[in-house]
Specification:
There is one protein chain. By secondary structure, this protein is of the alpha/beta class. It contains 7 helices and 17 strands. The strands form 3 sheets. The protein has a 9-stranded mixed beta sheet. The model has no long low-confidence stretch (mean pLDDT 95).
C-alpha cells in the first residue's frame, strides 16, 4: 500500500490544543469492525461498552519532563535537548537543536546550574550521546527543571503537566504519553472493575520515533524504531483467564496493542516478557491477541492510523475518520477517542 492511501483532510481547528475539562468527558466514537456501524457518545460510556469477563490492558509508563534548555558554556547559545533513551545512570541519547551548536565536547548548563552536560558523540542518526552532571537524583533534578515534551502540533502552554500523564502512570521512561489512556479517571476504572472486567498493565516506554513520519511511498519500506517493553506475569495470567472464559482482550492504545502482539509473535503466547520491539502493524497483519482497541484519532499517513486500519479494516477506518471530521471531533494527543470492537 502507498503512504498516500492513509491521507485525510483535517481542518487545523480540530487539532486539540488542551485536554478536555474532564478526562472522561471527551467524546467517544464507537466503531463496529465487523459491520462498520458508527455510534457517538462520551468516554464515560466505555463502562457500558465493556462486558463482564473482558479484560482491559493499560500502559503504565510515565512521561519524563524530557525537554531541557541548555546554555552553552563560552558562547551563551541556547540549545534544546530532548531525552530519548537512557544508556547508563548519567548518559542519554538525545535530540539536540540546533545540532550545529552541540558538537562533540560541547558543554551546557541547565536550570541555573542545577545540572550540566557534555556532548560525548554525534551519532549516525544525527542524535547526540550526552553525559549529565548533577547532585543527588537525576530524575528528581529533571522533575525540577525539565518540561513536558508535548508534540509539535500543540502550541498552547499546558498549565497542569499531570494532564499529560495517565492517572495510573508508574514507571518513568517515556518521551510521549500513551494518549488513549488519558481519558480514564480512577473512579471510572473502579466502576469497570466492579463490573467484572479485569485490569492488567504492561509497560512500554514510548519513543519519539512513534511519531516519525513515514517517508517511503511504499509503506512496507518503512522501518520502525525500537521501544522497550515489559509484560508482567500477572498481566499474562489475566489475559489467559480472559481467553479461557471467552472474554475480549481490550488494548488501551496502540502501545498496548504493539506490546501484546509483539510478545505473541515472538513467544507464540502471552507470557511474562521483557524485550525491545520494532513491530510495524499495517493492513494485512494477523492479530493474535487483542480483540478490541481504544485509541485516539491519529495523524494522516502515520504508522498509528495504519495500525488502526489493520485492526478494523481500511474502508471502515477511513470512513470513520471522515465522519469524525464532519462531526467535529477533536484530534490527536489531547483529542477524543474511538472504541473499536465487534
Amino acid at each position: 500500500m502507498k503512504k498516500s492511501d492513509f491521507y485525510y483532510e483535517l481542518p487545523q481547528e480540530l487539532i486539540a490544543q488542551h485536554p478536555a475539562e474532564r478526562r472522561d468527558g471527551s467524546r467517544l466514537l464507537t466503531l463496529n469492525k465487523t459491520t462498520g456501524e458508527i455510534r457517538h457518545g462520551v468516554f464515560g460510556d466505555i463502562e457500558g461498552l465493556l462486558r463482564k469477563g473482558d479484560c482491559l490492558i493499560l500502559n503504565d509508563t510515565r512521561v519524563l519532563p524530557a525537554r531541557l534548555y541548555g546554555i552553552k558554556e563560552g558562547t551563551g547559545a541556547r540549545v534544546e535537548f530532548l531525552l530519548l533513551s537512557q544508556k547508563s545512570a548519567d548518559t542519554w541519547e538525545t535530540l539536540a537543536g540546533p545540532g550545529k551548536k552541540a558538537k562533540k565536547g560541547s558543554r551546557f548548563t541547565f536550570g541555573d546550574g542545577l545540572m550540566s552536560c557534555e556532548v560525548l558523540e554525534s551519532l549516525n542518526n544525527g542524535n547526540r550521546l550526552v553525559r549529565f552532571f548533577f547532585d543527588g537524583s537525576f530524575f528528581e533534578t529533571l522533575d525540577r527543571i525539565g518540561e513536558m515534551p508535548l508534540p509539535h502540533y500543540i502550541t498552547e502552554k499546558l498549565e497542569d503537566r499531570e494532564r499529560y500523564q495517565t492517572v495510573y502512570a508508574r514507571y518513568s521512561g517515556s518521551a510521549a504519553a500513551p494518549t488513549a489512556g488519558l481519558h480514564f479517571t480512577k473512579e471510572l476504572l473502579d466502576k469497570i472493575r466492579q463490573k467484572g472486567v479485569e485490569i492488567g498493565f504492561v509497560t512500554l516506554h514510548v519513543g519519539l520515533g512513534t511519531f516519525r513520519p513515514v517517508k517511503a511511498d511504499n509503506i512496507e519500506e518503512h522501518h520502525m524504531h525500537s521501544e522497550h517493553y515489559h509484560v508482567p506475569a500477572e498481566t499474562a495470567d489475566i489475559i489467559d483467564r480472559t481467553k479461557e472464559r471467552g472474554g475480549r482482550v481490550v488494548a488501551v492504545g496502540t502501545t498496548c496493542c504493539r506490546t501484546l502482539e509483539s510478545v505473541y509473535r515472538e513467544k507464540g503466547k502471552i507470557c511474562e516478557h521483557d524485550a525491545w520491539t520494532d513491530i510495524f502493524i499495517y493492513p494485512g497483519f494477523e492479530f493474535k491477541c487483542i480483540d478490541a482497541l481504544i485509541t485516539n484519532f491519529h495523524l494522516p499517513e502515520s504508522t498509528l492510523i495504519m495500525l488502526v486500519c489493520a485492526f478494523c479494516g481500511y474502508e471502515n477506518t477511513m470512513r470513520a475518520y471522515k465522519v469524525a471530521v464532519q462531526e467535529k471531533y477533536r484530534f490527536f494527543s489531547f483529542g477524543d477517542a474511538m472504541f473499536i470492537s465487534d
